[in-house]
Amino acid sequence: SIWWITDSAGRLEPPVHGGFDGGDGVFEGDDVDGDVPVGVRFHWDVIDADHARWQQSFSRDGEEWETNWVMDFTRR
Predict the structure, then answer these.
(1) What is the mean pLDDT of residues 44-72?
(2) Of 5, 11, 34, 60, whose Cβ has the fewest other Cβ atoms within 10 Å?
(3) Cα(50)–Cα(37) distance, rounded to whole angstroms?
(4) Whole-number Å distance between alpha carbons of 73 and 44
(5) Is the predicted pLDDT of residue 6 greater than 90, yes or no?
(6) What is the band of 37 on the pLDDT scale with cuts at 50, 70, 90?
(7) Reduced to 3 states, what is the DSSP secondary structure of residue 70?
(8) What confidence category does residue 50 fall into, taking pLDDT thresholds of 50, 70 and 90?
(9) With contact defined as beta carbons under 8 Å apart, do 37 and 22 qualify?
């Protein structure tokens, strides 16, 4: 499980659940976009020993996912 806390709301959000298979991790749960309930998916790609990518996607129907946030990580 991955837990998220927002500084704007100051509260711990419901977790997303999932896991890794090799270098690919998928975690899903429930969220809201404004006032609209949505599914949320966190997708982790381990690119190599020094690089990873995290993406967040929302879905209103559980079938089509729209990526709305991407972060790339590099080890120092």
Answers:
(1) 95
(2) 34
(3) 35
(4) 11
(5) no
(6) very high
(7) strand
(8) very high
(9) no
C-alpha distance across the termini of the chain, in Å: 26
What pLDDT is recorded for position 4?
86
Q: pLDDT band at 36, cuts 50/70/90?
A: very high
Q: Letter for the amino acid at 32?
A: V
Instruction: Provide Rg for the chain, Cα atoms.
Output: 13
- The answer to whether 27 touches 2, Cβ cutoff 8 Å, is yes
Return d(Cα 38, Cα 34) in angstroms, integer.
Answer: 10
The answer to whether the beta carbons of residues 52 and 34 sit under 8 Å apart is no
Asked if 57 and 66 touch (Cβ cutoff 8 Å), the reply is yes
DSSP state, residue 22: T
- Token pair, residue 44, equals 């982790």
Give all strands of the β-sheet with 36-48 in edge-to-edge order.
17-21, 24-33, 36-48, 51-59, 66-74
